[in-house]
Amino acid sequence: MSLALTSQLAELHLLQCSLLPGESFSFILPTDDLKEWSELLRNHIELEDSDFQSSLPASTCRFEVRVKDAPIWLEVELPRGYPMIDAPLVYIRGEEIDRTQQERWQKIVRNEMNELQQEKTEFLVQTLLCMTTLPLLHQLVSVRTLGHADTSSVTCMPSASGATESHSEPVYHALLTSHHLISSKKRRILQKWAPLFSLRGFAKIGYPGCIYAEGARADLLDFITSVKGFQWLALHVRFVEPLSGEHSGQFAEKREDGHSWVELERIGEVVEYMRRLGREQFVTEMGLGSSASTSST
């Protein structure tokens, strides 16, 4: 048995053991190939020391992972050279998603995979699924269940035709505050959601918590709905409104480091950040710092 196949079987076994309630794994292969891969996986410990060519499968491994009630799931194909040479292929599938939404989910998967590859993560697929995409799908289910907005919630993203004209749409921004923002899980998911919803902004961590985001109205509302899906202490949406001409368009000019979402630690940093954008009053009028605040706050 090849080293690549041994590694694939070990990772598939780890993936199955890592799944949480409501998550499922299944091969998507023709009958003969399904039988072969199922048998290999079932006996992979005994076959690890074998070099018999007969143990090599006729097809590459292809499987799907789903979260119960999620409208989106993932298909994964492991090329014969994975993980030594080839990269895995991960596809976004769904019954209720349009092309724009599919491309956004594909983008977040691609970005996360690039990060994991740069970090030389040992079990890349298992980490990608269990640490990033499956938690996001669980959150998607929670948001749909809570139904804060319309019944389709996060899945109601702009159509592909609308996306091509997004540059002519008005830019909206929103400010949310909470008693605190400490959870590493929340912080990590906010960082993942920003590119998913095509938003720019920041999260002020610690006490109090503060989230500021800018983007298309539909994306921003879906983002807020998703944020509400978490458990919060005293979460308030302070405003959601269009940016006036004097304030719109300045964000991209001020963000030259290539990052669309950042974390801040102090209220003074929030005020200074907004001051650089010419939007200082949007936070000071909400009681966050003052016009004389500095990063020493």
UniProtKB/TrEMBL annotation:
It comes from the Eukaryota. Signal peptide: none annotated. InterPro entries: Phi-like (IPR017359), RWDD2A-B_C (IPR059181), UBQ-conjugating_enzyme/RWD (IPR016135). CDD domains: RWD_DRWD_ELF-like, RWDD2_C. Coiled coil: none annotated. PANTHER family: RWD DOMAIN CONTAINING PROTEIN 2, RWD DOMAIN-CONTAINING PROTEIN 2B-RELATED. This is Uncharacterized protein. It comes from Phellinidium pouzarii.
